[in-house]
Amino acid sequence: MRICIVAEHASKKFGGEAILPVHYFRLLRSLGVESWMVVHARTQNELSELFPDDFDRILFVPDLWIHKLINHLSNYLPRRLSTATLGLFNHLITQFCQRDIVRQLIRDKRITVIHQPIPVAPKFPSVLYGLGVPVVIGPLNGGMQYPPAFRQAEPWIGRAGIAVAGLFVNLVNGLLPGKKLADVILVANERTRLALPSGIRGRVIELVENGIDFSLWRGTSANVESATARFVFLGRLVDWKAVDVVIRALKAVPLAELEVIGDGPMLEVWRNLAEELGIQERVYFAGWLPQEECAARLQSSLALVLPSIYECGGAVVLESMAMGKPVIATRWGGPVDYLDESSGILIGPKSYPDLVAGFADAMTKLMNSPELATSMGAAGRKRAVRDFDWQKKIQQVISIYRALAEKSDVPRKCKEGRVSPTAVSKHR
After folding, report:
1. Mean of the per-residue pLDDT values for the chain?
2. Which of 99, 118, 354, 419 could form a disulfide with 17 if both were Cys (CB 3.0 to 4.6 A apart)?
3. Strands across the sheet containing 344-347
4. Cβ(154)–Cβ(78) under 8 Å?
5. What is the sign of the dihedral through the CA atoms of 129, 131, 132 and 135?
6. Do residues 12 and 22 lie in contact, with contact meaning Cβ atoms separated by under 8 Å?
7. Cα separation values, 112 from 140, 241, 276, 411, Å
8. pLDDT at residue number 222
9. Stretch (H or E) spanning 366
10. What is the tens place of the pLDDT at every residue in 294-314?
11. How far is the C-alpha of 421 from the C-alpha of 424, rounded, in Å?
12. CA distances from 303 to 59, 135, 317 (A)
């Protein structure tokens, strides 16, 4: 097999879905699978450090002036609207550049399967079709809305724009039918399956989007003894992560403190909120930290808190489970796929006050019962090892590759050659 991973970004620093291509490429190369990766040049320096021995197998789309302009304009729109409009346009520009690079890789390196793991949004179009080799897309994860009680929190212009953008995306999927023609579409759950564009011809397989790298997230379920219980939030500081819910809950839990790990546009807003409530001495904003440091901070905490009201996946939930730590999360989206009552506490988003009160009660419950926190952590780790290990997941993906590789039309006797330097940016 010769696999080509195609993604907008591949990064451990970007957060979110950008780490998924890194895992696929890392694990395939560790298993000796002939594989290449085609991504945007924004993460070129980072990837040179992550993969010094395989850097010649990573090819880059240059950061064009149009990319830079779109990124600048996207700062002036609500996040979801920006993603569905300017983000879509940016992705398509990158994909058309990638298509030329992939075509040469198919010819010169005898690629037998193309895998496009991101973007994970089920309706985002793909231009990877008609290339003569099987295509795998996903696992996709999406089809989400805000909880009913929170939908008015999104600006009306954002809601209206999303509705219009949805019609546009359906049109683009008809003009660029990569998803419809893909041989295999991987979906994380039934919600995502129902959100796929109409007319899918390939096989749809359910496979969890996220996984756990147990070489990094390898804690135990041992509880941490401390006079003050520390809870940790990990993630980008954007409005829908709703960290303000936990900050307000903390006001009602005087023996608790919160460490917020991450960066983003809501940092100052939430820092000011903690000051307004008079609890700034119990809320620590650590900023962005490397994953190794995140793991260490999580290990010394009582539990992870994830109050997000728009979380399709939630890799941090799995990472906390792997560390043997219980999770308090909103009962909405991705966390519901991972957690049950044995490994965490899910709070229904019936209303904003109910969500705040629910997090306060859950934090107090874990503080008052260390035995419960320990048993939840142990149960979560057991499930994480059983169901979410990246090593097991990559074997499932490889079995899909292997089944498709036999369908490849690429001549097996084609001579290997170098990819044309005009198709990719130069390595620094």
Report:
1. 87
2. 118
3. 283-287, 256-261, 229-234, 303-306, 327-330, 344-347
4. yes
5. negative
6. yes
7. 22, 40, 58, 10
8. 53
9. helix 352-368
10. 999 999 999 999 999 988 888
11. 6
12. 40, 40, 10
Mean pLDDT confidence for 205-227 = 76
Predicted TM-score (pTM) of the model is 0.84
Would you say 284 and 300 are in contact if contact means Cβ atoms under 8 Å apart?
A: no
Q: Give 378 or 426, the one with higher predicted confidence.
A: 378
Other C-beta atoms closer than 10 Å to the C-beta of 104 total 18
Instruction: Give the span between the Cα atoms of 91 and 86, in whole angstroms.
Output: 9
Q: What is the pLDDT of residue 164?
A: 58
Asked if residue 324 lies in contact with residue 291, where contact means CB atoms within 8 angstroms, the answer is: no
Comparison of pLDDT for 373 and 156, the residue scoring more:
373
Question: Strand 58-61 vs strand 184-187: parallel, antiparallel, or unpaired?
Answer: unpaired
Determine the residue type at 89: F
The confidence score (pLDDT) of residue 410 equals 47
Closest CA to 319 of 213, 243, 242: 213
174 vs 406: CA distance, rounded Å: 28
DSSP category for residue 330 = E
User: In sequence order, which residues have a C-beta less than 8 Å from that of residue 110 and are 6 or more positions away?
Assistant: 2, 410, 411, 412, 414, 416
Amino acid at 14: F
Tokens in use for 317? Answer: 């939930």
In degrees rounded to 5, what are phi and psi of residue 339?
-105, 150
- Do 231 and 298 form a contact (C-beta atoms < 8 A)? no
* pLDDT value, residue 417: 39
By CB neighbour count within 10 A (0-12 exposed, 13-18 middle, 19+ buried), where does 76 fall?
exposed
Which amino acid, residue 263?
D
What residue spans of 31-76 are helical by DSSP H? 44-50, 65-74
Q: Can you tell me the distance from the alpha carbon of 360 to that of 232, in angstroms, rounded to the nearest whole number?
A: 14
